[in-house]
């Protein structure tokens, strides 16, 4: 639940709507979506640290609403 709160807080911080929320979730999930399907791993538990690391890696500043 804390990860969801983090995602919502980021969306509010960047003043984003539904598309912005999608972009945040995609930034967190992108590696899993493309790399892991070819592996045996079927689940991913997203922790707050994982979400923060992925968003730090992504350039989320470009998502700010105009």
Walkthrough of the structure:
This protein is mainly α. It has one domain. Helix content is 61%, strand content 0%. It is built from 3 helices and no strands. It has helices at residues 2-13, 18-35, 48-57. Helix 1 (2-13) packs across helix 2 and helix 2 packs across helix 3. The chain starts with a helix and ends in a 9-residue tail after the last helix.
Shape: globular
Mean pLDDT: 85
Main β-sheet: number of strands, strand sense, barrel status? none
Task: Report the span from N to C terminus.
Answer: 29 Å
- Total number of β-strand segments? 0
Describe, in short, the structure shown:
This protein is mainly α. The protein is 61% helix and 0% strand. The longest helix has 18 residues, at 18-35.
Keywords:
66 residues; 3 helices
SSE order and pairing:
Elements: H1 2-13, H2 18-35, H3 48-57
């Amino acid at each position: 639940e804390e990860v969801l709160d983090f995602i919502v807080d980021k969306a509010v911080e960047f003043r984003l709507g539904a598309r912005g929320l999608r972009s945040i979730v995609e930034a967190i999930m992108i590696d899993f979506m493309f790399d892991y399907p070819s592996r045996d791993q079927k689940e991913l538990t997203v922790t707050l640290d994982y979400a923060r690391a992925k968003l730090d890696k992504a350039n989320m500043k470009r998502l700010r609403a105009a």
